[in-house]
Every structure is written in structure tokens, then in C-alpha cells.
Amino acid sequence: MNSKNLKFFLNDLKSQINLSTIHTDSDTLEKYSKDETSNLLSLPNIVIKAKNSNEISLILKLCNKYNIPITPRGAGTGVTGGAIPTSGGVVLSLEYMNKILEIDKKNMTATVEPGAITGEIQNESKAVGLMYPPDPASLDSCSIGGNVSEIAGGPKAVKYGTTKDYILGLEFITADGTIMKTGGKFVKNATGYNLTGIILGSEGTLVIITKIILKLLPLPPVTYDLLLPFDTLNKAIESVSQILTKGVIPATIEFMEKDALNLVTKNLNKSIPFPNAGAHLLIQIDGIDEENVLTQIETLSASIDIDIDNILVAQSDIQKKRLWDTRRSIRDSIVAESPIFLAEDCVVPRASIPQFLIELKKYLNSKNLKSIMFGHAGDGNVHIDILKGNIEDKEWNKIVPELKILNPGKIFNQS
Ligand SMILES: Cc1cc2nc3c(=O)[nH]c(=O)nc-3n(C[C@H](O)[C@H](O)[C@H](O)COP(=O)(O)OP(=O)(O)OC[C@H]3O[C@@H](n4cnc5c(N)ncnc54)[C@H](O)[C@@H]3O)c2cc1C
């Protein structure tokens, strides 16, 4: 980047926007040089914490005029490196544009600024009997603008889909500073090109999103959580298709293999129900009333040939928390066991999960690598964490790039 241009850009910027918005101190530049992606870092020259769309439009016009790279940033929890300013220039933080502007109960929509925290949108919707379903594990810290740009998903994707299924309209600003709008508070929107669609998942490379209209759903009044033990991972995953094809669509279907549960028991001193099981499914069933939920549980139990007495059913908030605590403790117990580990996030067709994981485990075992596998059985998204443990740094640094370039499909076919 041309340093003269940068100087002119900064002078021009300072003459037109509030100085408190512009940051060039080394602490701030360092903080905004990274996100949650491991081992990636690149310093920006300037951090701008924008307060409104007009300001952003002006910043983009000036970036264009002086040829300065610009990287938008929400809360910086991304794991794709999208918020890292790899070419330097400006990091445009949306963190101050964090208002939930409106929850419209009649139209079942929320209108929000991009920096609004996802968990807060969920809480405000819940307070009026509505639900914003997408639930990335980072929901208490990530922003909705980041969710739209990454199409964030979570355990509820199996029944409710991901962020992309809830975007009714957007306000965004193009690279030349033009403010544009798509969609609105309506469900049907078939006129013209689907501009919203191209912006979803664009990771800040196309436009800066400045306002989002979200679809909300009625909050299901009754929710039960179930823990199901299986002899093997294969049986656990096979049962997922059996449940779904019987017409029961759980809100979540999470799987945890034996190694994951053993680690939780060992490192976090937690006892788990069914300690001898080879794998568990953690399933959430929701519905319009008690009868509806119980009928779904009966159908589910019949569909997988599991005695209903062997299903642990959590109805109260405390019981539910206990079940979910185990699932949510897996990462903490991995860190307790091996602070250094390689976290891989893969997606495979649901029916291929068992074969994929079994073959992958066999491969990793053959290399003396300890792995922990868990994830969203409902939508095929599996987490594979490979632990460094006692492996020497030199050896580990050699192994990691080899693992990273391995195409999971290649491992999958190796036996
Ligand atoms: C502990 C943890 C758990 C996680 N769990 C999940 C999970 O379950 N599911 C999941 O999908 N992800 C998960 N993530 C990843 C991350 O939280 C999501 O990708 C999230 O959507 C990022 O939001 P953010 O506000 O932090 O965005 P950032 O990291 O700030 O940015 C992400 C991308 O969006 C772009 N961007 C941000 N705001 C805007 C905007 N207003 N306009 C244009 N572009 C913009 C950035 O340029 C960047 O490319 C997890 C991360 C962590 C650390």
C-alpha cells in the first residue's frame, strides 16, 4: 500500500468524521489484527469504529479514492480469518452499531444493526414469545453481521436451518459508498435478482452490511431434552435417519463418542449417565404442548427400537442444564487434557458420519494421535479435535501441516 496515499486518506478522513472514531495506537491495531483463527495475524494501519451508515459510506468513498484496503469486522469470533486485514489498511469495526432497533411482534420480525449480539436478539425475541433459532456456540459474543457474513449455524440447524434461512432484508453499502436495500418485512420476495442471497456468506468481501431484517418464529412452549445411550457410534448415527424418516424432527441431535465422554469424566470430574455406552445422542424435542412432545418421544423411541425406560428425559431447567453441561464441557476437557490441539470442523452427508469417523479414528490411531469426535449428527457437521498431548513440539509442528492438507475424503477411503 502506498504510504503517501495512506497519509492523504487519514487527513481527509479526520477532516470529515469524528476523531474519536479513528484509532491508530499500537494496542488497538494489535487487538484488531486477529480473530479466533489460530496462527493468523496481520496488522491494520487504522481501526475505525463506525457509528452509522452515512459515516461508513464516506469511509468507503475515501478508501476507494485513495486505494486503501478495508476489512469489515463484527465481534472477531470468526474462525475463517475473514476479519483479519491481510492487506493492512482499514479495519472497519461495526461493534458500536449494536442496537436491536425493533422487535415487530405482528410481522414476526426483528430489525437490528450488524453489531447486535446474537444472544441478545434471541433474548429480546423470547421476551415477547418469539424465537430467533440460529444458535452458534459463540452466540453470547458474536454479532449478527458476522453471522450473516459467515452463514453461522448451530445445533438447531437440523430443524430450523441456519442464519441464511432468517434474512428477510438487508441494508448494505457497496465499495463505492452507495447505500442499498434489499427485501423487507415480507416473506414473499420474488421480484428481481436475489441480491440478498449473494451477500449471505460473502465474509466481508462484497459489501458492508449495516442493517438486517430477521424472520422470527413463534417460541415453542414445551421443550424436552433426551439422552440416549448406544453400544456403538454406528448405531447412534444410524438411529438419526430412523428418527427423521418417521417424521420426528428434533430441534437438535448432538452426538458424543465414548472418548469425548471419558475425557469429560476424567478431566472435569463429572459423572455421566450410561458410562459404558459407546456413544450418546443428545436430542431436543420441542412442540406446541406437553401431549405433542410426548407423542414425538414415543414415536422416536419406537422408531429406533430403544426401550423408553433407557432414555433419560430432562424436563426441568436444572435437569436440562446437567445434560447440556456434559456436551458443552467437551472443549474445556480437551483443553484441560492438552492445551494444544488441532480443531477441525467438517461436514459430510449425515449417513456417512459413522464410516467417516471410524476410518478417520483408525487413521489417526495408526499415527499415534489421540482424537476426540463430537458434533451435530442432525446436519452432518462433525468436530474432530486432535490432541498434541505429550508429542514433542518439533514433531507436532511437522504433523499439523500434514493433517491440514489431508483431504478428509482421502483418509476416509484409506482402509
Ligand atoms: C467458541 C466459538 C464457538 C463457535 N461456534 C460456532 C458455531 O457453533 N457455528 C458457527 O457457524 N460458527 C461458530 N463460531 C464461529 C463464529 O462465531 C461465527 O462465524 C460468527 O458468525 C462470527 O461472527 P463475528 O461477529 O464474530 O464476526 P467476525 O469474526 O468479526 O467476522 C466474520 C466475517 O464477517 C465479516 N463481517 C462481519 N461483520 C460484517 C458486516 N457488518 N458487513 C460485512 N461483513 C461483515 C468479516 O469481514 C469476516 O469476514 C464459533 C467461534 C468461537 C470462537
Can you characterise this structure?
With 415 residues, this protein is of the alpha+beta class. The protein contains 15 helices and 18 strands. The strands form four sheets. A seven-stranded antiparallel sheet has the order 15-12-14-13-17-18-16, sandwiched between helices. Strand 8 and strand 9 form a beta hairpin. The model has no long low-confidence stretch (mean pLDDT 91). The structure holds flavin-adenine dinucleotide. Flavin-adenine dinucleotide (FAD) binds next to strand 3, helix 5 and strand 10.
Shape: globular
Widest β-sheet, arrangement of strands: 15-12-14-13-17-18-16
Rg of Cα set: 24 Å
Percent of residues in helices: 25-40%
Strand segment tally: 18
Q: What structural class do the secondary elements suggest?
A: alpha+beta
Bound molecules: flavin-adenine dinucleotide
Give the end-to-end Cα distance, rounded to a whole number of Å.
50 Å
Count of helices? 15
What number is the mean pLDDT? 91
In short:
The chain is built from 15 helices and 18 strands. With 415 residues, it is α+β, with helices and mostly antiparallel strands. Helix 1 runs antiparallel to helix 3 and helix 9 crosses helix 12.
List keywords for this structure.
415 residues; 36% helix; 15 helices; binds flavin-adenine dinucleotide; 7-stranded antiparallel β-sheet; alpha+beta; 18 strands; 5-stranded antiparallel β-sheet
Strand and helix map with partners:
Layout: H1 3-16, E1 22-23, H2 26-31, E2 46-49, H3 53-66, E3 70-73, E4 90-93, E5 100-104, E6 109-112, H4 118-127, E7 130-131, H5 144-150, H6 157-160, E8 167-173, E9 179-183, H7 195-199, E10 208-215, E11 217-218, E12 222-230, H8 233-245, E13 252-257, H9 258-268, E14 279-287, H10 290-303, E15 312-314, H11 317-328, H12 330-337, E16 341-347, H13 353-366, E17 370-376, E18 381-387, H14 393-405, H15 408-412
Parallel strand pairs: 2-4, 3-4
Antiparallel strand pairs: 1-2, 5-6, 6-10, 7-11, 8-9, 8-10, 12-14, 12-15, 13-14, 13-17, 16-18, 17-18
Helix pairs in contact: 1-3, 9-12
